[in-house]
Amino acid sequence: MKKSPELSLRGRALQYLARREYSRAELAAKLRPYVQVEDDFEQLQRVDLEALLNELTESGYLSDERAATQLLHARRSRFGIQRITREMREKGMGEELIEQALPELKDSELEAARSVWQRKFGTIAVDAKEKARQMRFLQSRGFGFDVIFKVLQSSDVED
């Protein structure tokens, strides 16, 4: 059996980026275990990782804006603002990107919450216990209480 050659740090980065968009912080975290540290050259290796990330950003392969857009499109129909902003922060996206995404998310949040509620439950809660369960579910998906109340009230009115 032939052993495959070890990938360079740049090759590994390009493989990750070929699969999906990554934020700078997220890609750095994925690449950090593959940075080879030799004695006193640890600082030099960190600089190499930063230089690689800078090169990928300058060449257009790495973009926090594209990663944020991809995350928004993937999550917006299933999750609320709170959950999406938390995920963006966890992935190391800057606050300015999050602030830019908020107006678009707020416009579609009620519609997304109704859709999620309809797929999961579809019928109005008959008692307080069931209503609390539905509220907890929507809250776990990152929807705010104001949106949850609107969804549950509108479902009461529709039926």
Architecture overview:
The chain has a domain at 1-62. It contains eight helices and no strands. The protein is mostly helical and 159 residues long. α5 packs across α6. It is elongated. Helices cover 70% and strands 0% of the residues.
Would you kindly provide a brief summary of this structure?
This protein is an all-alpha fold.
Highlighted features:
elongated, mainly alpha, about 160 residues
The termini sit apart by 66 Å
Count of helical stretches: 8
- Overall strand count: 0
- Estimate the strand proportion: under 5%
What characteristic shape results from the CA principal axes? Answer: elongated
Helix and strand succession? HHHHHHHH
* Mean of all residue-level pLDDT scores: 87
Radius of gyration: 22 Å
Main sheet overview: none
- Helix/strand-derived category reads mainly alpha
Q: Are there runs of 5+ residues with pLDDT below 50, and where?
A: none
Percent helix: 55-70%
Topology of this protein?
Layout: H1 9-19, H2 24-31, H3 42-58, H4 64-75, H5 81-90, H6 95-120, H7 128-140, H8 145-158
